[in-house]
Structure formats: structure tokens, C-alpha cells
Specification:
- The complex is a heterodimer.
- By secondary structure, chain A is mostly beta strands.
- Chain A has no helices and 11 strands.
- In chain A, 38% of the residues are buried.
- Chain B is mainly beta.
- Classes of the chains: A mainly beta, B mainly beta.
């Protein structure tokens, strides 16, 4: 059974750096073709893909946010970490992690999401 | 980056109706096109992948079609559980993009 769970702070201040952790089970990021992505959704708005890391440690970022994002993995702990620098109130959103496979290029399993509010 | 435009933004329909949501890409894309259903407070759920393949646990009333720049999700007979927001998503050149969503409401 594949599961993913996001964890991190619920509240961050403007200009701070956000660090989120995705802990997963039911698959391994050392398996060829496996990937984990981060996706966010501001309240009442659409989904936005942020970043992806694959089994080979290749990393891909949203063009509009790439200067602020860093994605990394700890295969032994089944975790993927996303950092986003210089947080702003417009970054207030629910942040999801999701499994991706290079076979289908979609997001087949999702975490429940974690709401991050940016406010002073 | 490729932009995905869904229409309509909101759709009012009744139980039993046949419903079609469209998704247009800003340039030709391959068949890496997926559809998701999202209910309030929940994570999206994958319905269709590779434009027309139904996810293994997806109800058969959902179907996907299209190619090039025009894609569609059809619900053959709308059920009470189908009132939700639907998103298309594409992959191209190491980038993933979602549409802005279509909310299916009860008429």
C-alpha cells in the first residue's frame, strides 16, 4: 500500500525559509522510474506543480519558482524534503507531495496535504 | 511553459446528465495528459492518464479523449459522488502543468 505524508510548520513569517518533509511508504525511490513531486494549492485556487526528484537524483523545478526551491531525498529514510526560501503571504497554500512514475508522468498517489500560512 | 486552459470554469448539471470538460494546451503536447477529481479538503484523485486510460479503480462512466492540443473528460451519467472540481495536467519537457479547474455543481 502506497502512502505519503507531509510534515512541516503550519505558520512561517515573511522572508523565512520553509522546509517540508514528505515521508512515504509502499515504494522505493531507489527503484528505476520512481519519483516524488511537490504540488501546492492556494486556498480556493488551482493546483501548481513545484518540483520533482527522481530515482537517479535528477531534480526538476517550476520555471517561475526555481530560484527559491530545493528538493532532496533520503532514500534510506523514505523521505523527500522541499525547501522554499524568502516566503511571502502569496505562498500561503496547502502543500502536497505525490508519487510520480516516469512510465505515466502523472501523480498517482498523494499525501493529504499540509496547510502553510505565511504571516507576520 | 505550456499553459492548460479548461472550459467551462463552472458547470451546473443534474444527476444522470452526460458531462464533458475540455482542456486546451497552448501548444501540441504528447499523450502525457491526465485528469484528476478533487473534493473540498481532500487531495486530488487520479481518474485518467495518458489521455484516455482509465485509472484501475476509476468508475467506467469516466472517459478521456483527445490529442494534439484538445483533450476532454466525459462523465457518461453524472452521479451524486461526481460533484467536485476536475483538473487536467500535462507533462512536457521536464515540466508539469495543471489547468485552472472545472467545478461541477448540482443544477
Amino acid at each position: 500500500q502506497v502512502t505519503l505524508r507531509e510534515s512541516g510548520p503550519a505558520l512561517v513569517k515573511p522572508t523565512q525559509t520553509l522546509t517540508l518533509t514528505c515521508t512515504f511508504s509502499g515504494f522505493s525511490l531507489s527503484t528505476s522510474g520512481m519519483c516524488v513531486s511537490w504540488i501546492r494549492q492556494p486556498p480556493g485556487k488551482a493546483l501548481e506543480w513545484l518540483a520533482l526528484i527522481d530515482w537517479d537524483d535528477d531534480k526538476y523545478y517550476s520555471t517561475s519558482l526555481k530560484t527559491r526551491l530545493t528538493i532532496s531525498k533520503d532514500t534510506s529514510r523514505n523521505q523527500v524534503v522541499l525547501t522554499m526560501t524568502n516566503m511571502d503571504p502569496v505562498d500561503t497554500a496547502t502543500y502536497f507531495c505525490a508519487r510520480t512514475t516516469m512510465k505515466t508522468r502523472n501523480f498517482d498517489y498523494w499525501g493529504q496535504g499540509t496547510l502553510v500560512t505565511v504571516s507576520s | 511553459d505550456i499553459q492548460m486552459t479548461q472550459s467551462p470554469s463552472t458547470l451546473s448539471a443534474s444527476v444522470g446528465d452526460r458531462v464533458t470538460i475540455t482542456c486546451r494546451a497552448s501548444q501540441t503536447i504528447s499523450s502525457w495528459l491526465a485528469w484528476y477529481q478533487q473534493k473540498p479538503g481532500k487531495a486530488p484523485k487520479l481518474l485518467v492518464y495518458k489521455a484516455s486510460s482509465l485509472e484501475s479503480e476509476g468508475p467506467s462512466r469516466f472517459s478521456g479523449s483527445g490529442s494534439g492540443t484538445e483533450f476532454a473528460l466525459t462523465i457518461s451519467s453524472l452521479q451524486p459522488d461526481d460533484f467536485a472540481t476536475y483538473y487536467c495536467q500535462q507533462y512536457d519537457s521536464d515540466s508539469w502543468t495543471f489547468g485552472q479547474g472545472t467545478k461541477v455543481e448540482i443544477k
